[in-house]
Design goal:
The protein is α+β, with helices and mostly antiparallel strands. It folds into 2 domains: 9-82 and 188-358, Aminopeptidase (3-Layer(aba) Sandwich); 84-173, Elongation Factor Tu (Ef-tu), domain 3 (Beta Barrel). It has 9 helices and 17 strands. The strands form 3 sheets. Strands 1-2-12-3-13-16-14-15 form an 8-stranded mixed beta sheet, with helices on both faces. A 6-stranded antiparallel beta barrel has the order 4-5-8-7-6-9. A 3-stranded antiparallel beta sheet has the order 10-11-17. Strand 4 (84-90) and strand 5 form a beta hairpin. Helix 1 runs antiparallel to helix 4, helix 4 (190-208) crosses helix 9 and helix 7 crosses helix 9 (343-358). 45% of the residues are buried.
């Protein structure tokens, strides 16, 4: 029989003004793949009052642990890194060509402002692009990795280098957080700092509602997801969990130019998404669905052809197999500077994860049959 519904099972607002302020600061801070440390420190500072122990691994994955001495271990996971650019080549004239760090979108780059992270601090720059007056419509080139470039206002390569910019410096888009029409969070890096925020809120609620868990809970903010789930692979081997609840974003397909036949039917504002696929353990998935049904939390369903493309895959196939499942937050305009999520979906994801964690039993074996 399911346990009595907790306070989070009601429609009471979950995200507080204080936690929303943390979300704003967390999103405005740059934490590109391979350089996540500042964001990880910020995230750990937020959850430290609610946890018993901290783990930070060699590459920067951060973990807050509740009940660290327990043998049975449950992971609640998101990823911390954001897409960015690497300085790749500096011309004699002082223009800078780049390489992707993660799945950065070359088509949105022209006219965007950037922060270039150097040993001397932040250097402001922008992606230049020829004026429309200088282009021939029948022959004009689209943005590609071969023609997009950064301009930092330098007269030549020597001045660029004097600023502290060198090959290997990381550049991130300079686009601040905003709330749109009262109902939407907007900014870069909601993929997947929104997930880091949600699992932090679950941690806060467990503490404030004095929930006693019969197992060790490892609230995990993994690095390097954007370049191949690398942080999750490493931390899974270290924690050796029994269960992994992973959260990430998924595409809202209810905007123009998206084919639902190819991408599925997922709408922002209509609840969290759950994924069916080989990496998702069916009995754990059923627990999530039943919890949502019980609490009348709306759910949307997706199917993964092979891999989910999220840290779920890394946890599922680690340590001889870990019961893993994915809860997704619908997102508009992924890998742009105006990623959008609906506040209601954020609250519903937090509520669902909070309740599912409490419904896992000590030593539970999610048997295949």
């Amino acid at each position: 029989m399911a346990k009595k519904t907790s306070k989070a099972g009601s429609k009471k607002k979950i995200v507080t003004a204080k936690s929303e302020k943390f979300l704003e600061q967390y999103l405005n801070n740059a934490a590109p793949t391979g350089h996540e440390s500042s964001g990880q420190k910020m995230w750990l500072d937020y959850i430290k009052p609610y946890i018993d122990e901290v783990i930070v691994d060699t590459y920067g994955t951060a973990v807050g642990v509740i009940n660290p001495d327990a043998k049975y271990k449950v992971v609640l996971e998101a990823h911390a890194d954001e897409i960015a650019w690497y300085v790749h080549y500096i011309t004699a004239e002082g223009f800078i060509y780049v390489r992707r760090n993660g799945g950065s979108d070359h088509q949105i780059a022209p006219s965007k402002r950037v922060n270039i992270h150097t040993p001397k601090g932040i250097v402001k720059g922008l992606f230049g692009w020829p004026a429309i007056h200088t282009r021939t419509a029948s022959k004009e080139a689209a943005p590609t990795m071969k023609n997009i470039f950064l301009d930092v206002g330098a007269k030549d390569k020597a001045e660029v280098e004097k600023m502290g910019i060198h090959v290997g410096c990381v550049a991130t888009f300079d686009d601040p957080f905003m709330v749109l029409n009262k109902n939407w969070y907007v900014g870069r890096a909601l993929d997947n700092r929104a997930g880091g925020f949600m699992i932090a809120e679950v941690t806060r609620m467990l503490h404030e509602q004095k929930v006693k868990l019969p197992f060790g809970l490892y609230i995990t903010n993994s690095v390097q997801e954007e370049i191949g789930l690398r942080g999750a692979q490493m931390i899974a081997e270290r924690i050796k969990p029994d269960v992994a609840l992973v959260t990430d974003v998924t595409h809202c397909t209810h905007t123009p130019m998206i084919n639902k036949i190819e991408q599925g039917d997922i709408a922002a504002g209509k609840g969290p998404g759950v994924t069916y696929g080989p990496a998702v353990q069916n009995n754990l998935l059923e627990r999530i669905i039943n919890t949502a049904d019980e609490l009348k939390i709306p759910l949307q369903r997706m199917a993964a052809s092979r891999a989910t493309g999220t840290d779920t895959d890394a946890f599922a196939y680690s340590n001889a197999g870990v019961a893993s499942a994915l809860v997704s937050l619908p997102l508009r305009y992924m890998h742009t500077t105006v990623e959008m999520v609906h506040k209601k979906d954020v609250e519903d994801c937090i509520r669902l994860l909070f309740e599912v964690v409490q419904r896992i039993k000590k030593g539970e074996d999610f048997k295949y049959f």
